Amino acid sequence: MRVVNFETAKKLREFFGVDYSPWSIDGCNLLYVKNDEQLIDWSSVEADKYLRDKESFYPAPYIQEVIEYFEEKYGISIYITPRFDMLDKATQFEIYRNECSDSVDYSSDYRIGNRYESANRAIIETCNFLNDIKMNK
Questions:
Q1: Cβ atoms of 115 and 64 closer than 8 Å
Q2: The pLDDT value given to residue 101
Q3: Is 95 within 8 Å of 127 (Cβ atoms)?
């Protein structure tokens, strides 16, 4: 399993706040150092100097954990599929919000690149979508 990239970790911190629930430092094995984007192991000696201040790092949860959390907590499903058309090496992500018996297609997009890039982009878009919902309430 792969962890989210630095930009996605930053967006998740922005969305969930400093306490970063549900991925606090106790719930992640890896962290990004805020100033240099370095990925470090939570149990490493390096982590000690950064962990004294919550603001100096971003927890780096696994992509699958984030997708499952959005599904369980918010009823949002993220699908990432390869594209087999004229776009070589492209993947497509789709975000659905499951409401009652209908699924509402919130967003879909394709990217030249791999599933990892699409998954990160879909997570960022999901955070944006949930922020929009909060602002409109």
A1: no
A2: 47
A3: no
Amino acid letter, 11: K
Provide the residue type at 114 as one letter: N
Q: pLDDT (tens digit, 9 = 90+) per residue, 7-36?
A: 999 999 899 886 666 766 556 788 898 888
pTM: 0.82
The amino acid at 18: V
What pLDDT does 100 receive? 47
Determine phi and psi for 38, rounding to 5 degrees. Answer: -75, 135
> Given CA atoms 85, 116, 64, 5 in this order, what sign does their dihedral have?
negative
Rounded CA-CA distance 115/80 in Å is: 7
How far, in Å, CA of 92 to CA of 84, rounded? 10
Q: How far apart are CA 131 and CA 1, in angstroms?
A: 27
CB neighbours of residue 45 within 10 Å = 8
List the structure tokens of 130: 């949930």
Two tokens, residue 83: 């594209």
Collapsed DSSP state (helix, strand, coil) of residue 61: coil
